[in-house]
Write a structure and sequence with these properties.
283 residues, 4-stranded mixed sheet, Lyase 2-enoyl-coa Hydratase, Chain  A, domain 2, 6-stranded mixed sheet, 2-enoyl-CoA Hydratase, Chain A, domain 1, alpha/beta, disordered N terminus
Length: 283
């Protein structure tokens, strides 16, 4: 891998960290309040195979429980973010008519998305290259997506006769509207980074060589924010998917009162009045 292709995690992966476990196809690192999860099958464009899905779930759980992690980054090693399912393995399942194994694969993808959505910590997808199929929806399940100008994203499922999974039918219409969502799913085309940014699939697009730096800067910025306030805001936004205005006003009142009684609100107000940067503890 060239220096230009290095991701936040791969740059830090040389240093052993006793606080995080090792996995076969996923790399973990922790630095400056940021936990980075790197999909690590670069020769297969980080396509999911074997127990890789379960490893990502465990990695998210590790970062959720880690006391030093306040923001999480998910990215890919090499030139792709994630190519989705391993086509060779899928072909083998179809030839064997192994419906139960296929069901297990889909359920494992569901577990990844659920883990990301349920963690109270902000999760950033750093999309360093192609994000296809399940890889696209892995990115969409994250709270923020920052992408290389070389990246692309696509609902490529029907190219092999399949239906979207990993939450694609949930995330897409909420980001781009139902008509555009159906267009993206039905055409199955890969969308270049600039167009993905224009229609709302990516929050930011940056030059490829600056992706690691810009991702790290964004993640560290979020890590410095009050953890309780961010966790409650993430929770409220999830609830708003199915709630009416009155319910959300009640949620906001409850969350505001919880923040009002926290150390971090006292610290934030004092820091503002004293014209200094606050130091938030998360309580």
């Amino acid at each position: 891998m060239s220096p230009a292709e290095a991701t936040p995690a791969t740059k830090a992966a040389g240093a052993a960290d006793a606080s995080v476990p090792e996995f076969e196809n996923v790399l973990l690192s922790v630095a400056d309040g940021v936990g980075t999860i790197t999909l690590n099958r670069p020769d297969k464009l980080n396509a999911f195979a074997g127990t890789m899905r379960q490893e990502v779930v465990q990695a998210v759980e590790v970062m959720t429980a880690h006391p030093d992690v306040r923001a999480v980054v998910i990215t890919g090693a090499g030139r792709a973010f994630c190519a989705g399912a391993d086509i060779g393995y899928m072909k083998d399942l179809i030839q064997r008519h192994d419906t139960e194994a296929f069901r297990a694969l889909v359920e494992a993808g569901r577990a990844v998305v659920t883990a990301i959505r349920n963690t109270p910590k902000p999760v950033i997808a750093s999309v360093n290259g192609a994000a296809a199929g399940g890889g696209a929806n892995l990115a969409l399940s994250c709270d923020i997506r920052i992408a290389s100008d070389r990246a692309s994203i696509g609902q490529t499922f029907n190219k092999i006769g399949l239906h979207p999974d990993w939450g694609g039918t949930y995330f897409l219409p909420r980001l781009v509207g139902p008509a555009k969502a159906f267009e993206l799913i039905s055409t199955g085309e890969m969308v270049p980074a600039t167009e993905a940014h224009r229609i709302g699939l990516f929050n930011r697009v940056v030059p490829h060589e600056l992706l690691a730096e810009e991702t790290s800067s964004l993640a560290r910025h979020l890590a410095a924010k009050p953890p309780l306030a961010l966790a409650l805001a993430k929770q409220a936004l999830r609830q708003s998917d199915v709630a009416d205005l009155n319910h959300m006003l009640d949620v906001e009142l409850d969350h505001q009162l919880r923040c009002f009684e926290s150390h971090d609100t006292v610290e934030g107000l004092n820091a503002f009045l004293e014209k200094r940067e606050p130091t938030f503890r998360g309580d």
